[in-house]
Amino acid sequence: MFIVCFFVLALGFTVAAKSTSLSGSWRLTKGNDTWILMAMDGYCMITHYDLSGKKFHKTFGGLHTVENGNLTINYRFCSDNKAKTGTSEVFTWKVKGDKAISNLSGEEGEWQKVGAADNKMSGIWRITGRKEGNVVKDMPLAPRRTLKFLTNDRFQWAAINVETGEFSGTGGGMYTFKNGVYAETIEFFSRDNSRVGMTLEFKDHLEGQNWIHTGVSSKGAPIYEVWSKMEKEL
Description:
It comes from Niabella ginsenosidivorans. Residues 1-17 form the signal peptide. Helices cover 8% and strands 59% of the residues. The strands form 2 sheets. Strands 9, 10, 11, 12, 13, 14, 15, 16, 17 and 18 form a 10-stranded antiparallel beta sheet that branches. It has one helix at residues 2-19; strands spanning 24-30, 33-40, 43-50, 55-67, 70-78, 88-96, 99-102, 109-115, 123-132, 135-138, 144-150, 154-161, 167-178, 181-189, 199-203, 205-207, 210-216, 222-230. The model is unreliable at 1-20 (pLDDT under 50).
């Protein structure tokens, strides 16, 4: 009897622990507005945009914890209020199955889980090298950094400064990576909304913790970049 009760309690704990997990991608839609939350390994990015109208509204993100129905975000960037950088804010986050009730958008709404974050590309990548001429120039970690966050099928990059709160731009959407071809379909782009809807293809490969990214940018310029996976966002 004791063993059975222990098993039930243990199972209940496992389910409860799993229910608080934020890992993966979540979506909230209200009319033409879309909110996307991407999360993994204690880091998250949230973006608000209008896909059909090609309008970018805002993005923010940073370190997060989920406990007792609350989601706490320690801001590493906030596109419309750089003063939030380095501060924390608590939101509701009550999970039931693959849905969550939260006021993360500014008012309470239902978020739907739409993707996982457990493939080899999932996680936070930082650009650590870029080819200039025939030389790959190293880009050491600094307050000003460009990150790219991937779940299993979504991506978002953000150029930020974690000390000053300066926000330089972001873009994101859906991606695929098959047979050495990495393809991004852009759903939002803070710098140029005419790029929304474009699909860009690159010939990429992985070298250990490094992702070699080659091809042509949305402006037609050649690209050779080295992105390195960050075990922990600092």
